[in-house]
């Protein structure tokens, strides 16, 4: 929930426009007029982005006006607070808040031609941001000249795509500041990293950011290996088996990165959360055997897919030991509806490892609204120095950025619903109050993911094993021998189970 201070005419005018737009549907006009309306709406989005940039700069300047005499650390904390407030107002992650404020300052103060086009709706916000990004690490003089060439009279900004505009911007900067570009390329090596993010249909992207020559060289090596396999000339005996070259490249990269031999399954554990019924086909008859699992930090996984992953780990590859083939299962427990985990608490000053695991499992990603960064800190909502205890109710998982922002002056976090401690209050909820008095509620998602629904009375009750839990080779039911295949750790003891 977000609250706004009353009595501001500009806010009311924009809200009136929103209400007017809600009545626009293209009815009662010919198709030529509809196309004109679509064009005008696109212009409106650009004009709104320009106005938003101007208001953002005014807000940031107002918030930082009294920080000139503060220490560097205090000024950095104040900037972080401002950027986080902008991110919450725009329903975006804090890292995007940094970008929003930076782009707004560039457009308003250093790129008048681009700002003129954006205000008129001639270009959209994405094109303006591309040009801001292309000129981000150069001097103000170079940025202004690039702005004049590309967005000034006769410039191409209004006739090319956002991506092309960014390319043109980088080309102009390379011409005007060649030495600076070389120096930035050298410094950029320090930003090399590997990231992972979910993709549709049970897939994921593993992205390597590295020096161009090394990254392109690695890609070429994968491509060469794929060509060798496709031709049937791989020294290790790898065969195409119906795969295209892209699939072979992906399989090879993942296998080599994880240190697996050809044919060996992935030995590194991932955290899957699923009901006992979805896992084994038995358990609470009110739940469906097809209820999706959740991969912690990434999103939903169809139940048959999760079971298929577990099946693949039961069959050892040649030379693989039983220890390497183990599937690890930890049992956690929920309150009766199955939505939320039962709580834990500790008298320790720091959260013990089991409680940290609990917070990660409950919150999934950073608990700040619209921030999907991985959890880095187990945070006391009410600080220890203010009497806060190390409990599930007083704990939340935050990324490092949001945990630092929380400590800035004017920010206040308060538990408004403790979740399973008091089930009638609803799920665990934290109310965040910003320095301007705006409030945002952070509610823990259902343990199985936001797609979760409570069981319906008429849910099909299937008494035996799911047919999908059969060995694909023999057709026999898959009887999971937990004593041999899995190690079960009982962390919590309550009567409602969820396997994690």
From TrEMBL:
- Alphabetized SMART domains for the sequence: HNHc
GO MF annotations for this entry?
endonuclease activity; nucleic acid binding; zinc ion binding
The record's section on Gene3D superfamilies has:
1.10.30.50
Q: Which residues form the HNH nuclease domain?
A: 354-404
Q: Which family does it belong to?
A: Belongs to the Rv1128c/1148c/1588c/1702c/1945/3466 family.
Q: What is this protein called?
A: DUF222 domain-containing protein
């Amino acid at each position: 929930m977000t609250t706004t201070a009353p009595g501001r005419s500009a806010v009311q005018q924009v809200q009136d426009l929103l209400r007017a737009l809600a009545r626009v549907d293209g009815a009662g006009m010919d198709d030529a007029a509809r196309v004109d309306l679509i064009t005008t709406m696109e212009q409106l989005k650009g004009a709104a982005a320009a106005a938003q940039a101007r208001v953002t700069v005014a807000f940031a300047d107002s918030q930082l006006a009294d920080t000139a005499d503060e220490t560097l650390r205090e000024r950095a904390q104040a900037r972080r607070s401002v950027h986080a407030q902008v991110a919450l107002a725009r329903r975006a992650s804090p890292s995007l808040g940094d970008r929003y404020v930076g782009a707004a300052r560039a457009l308003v103060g250093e790129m008048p031609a681009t700002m003129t086009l954006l205000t008129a709706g001639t270009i959209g916000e994405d094109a303006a941001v591309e040009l801001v990004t292309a000129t981000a690490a150069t001097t103000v003089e170079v940025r202004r000249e690039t702005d004049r060439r590309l967005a000034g009279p006769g410039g191409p900004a209004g006739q090319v795509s956002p991506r092309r505009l960014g390319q043109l911007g980088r080309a102009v900067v390379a011409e005007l500041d060649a030495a600076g570009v070389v120096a930035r390329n050298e410094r950029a090596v320090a930003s090399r990293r590997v990231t992972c993010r979910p993709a549709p249909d049970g897939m994921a992207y593993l992205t390597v950011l590295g020096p161009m020559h090394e990254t392109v060289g690695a890609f070429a090596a994968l491509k060469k290996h794929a060509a060798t396999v496709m031709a049937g000339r791989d020294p290790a005996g790898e065969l195409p088996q119906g795969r295209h070259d892209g699939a072979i490249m992906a399989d090879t990269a993942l296998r080599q990165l994880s240190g697996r031999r050809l044919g060996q399954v992935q030995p590194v554990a991932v955290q899957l959360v699923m009901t006992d019924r979805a896992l084994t086909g038995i358990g609470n008859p009110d739940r469906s055997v097809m209820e999706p699992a959740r991969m912690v930090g990434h999103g939903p996984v169809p139940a048959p897919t999760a079971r298929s992953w577990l099946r693949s780990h039961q069959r050892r590859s040649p030379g693989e030991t039983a220890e390497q083939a183990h599937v690890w299962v930890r049992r956690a427990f929920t309150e009766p509806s199955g939505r939320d985990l039962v709580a834990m608490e500790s008298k320790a000053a720091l959260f013990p490892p089991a409680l940290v695991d609990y917070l990660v499992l409950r919150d999934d990603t950073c608990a700040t609204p619209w921030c999907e960064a991985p959890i880095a800190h187990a945070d006391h909502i009410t600080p220890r120095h203010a009497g806060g205890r190390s409990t599930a109710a007083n704990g939340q998982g935050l990324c490092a950025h949001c945990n630092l922002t929380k400590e800035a002056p004017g920010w206040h976090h308060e538990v408004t619903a403790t979740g399973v401690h008091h089930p009638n209050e609803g799920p665990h909820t934290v109310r965040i109050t910003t320095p301007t008095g705006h409030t945002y509620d952070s509610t823990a998602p259902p343990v199985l993911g936001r797609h979760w629904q409570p069981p319906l009375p008429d849910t099909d009750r299937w008494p035996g094993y799911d047919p999908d839990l059969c060995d694909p080779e023999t057709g026999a039911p898959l009887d999971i021998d937990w004593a041999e295949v899995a190690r079960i750790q009982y962390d919590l003891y309550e009567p409602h189970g969820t396997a994690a």
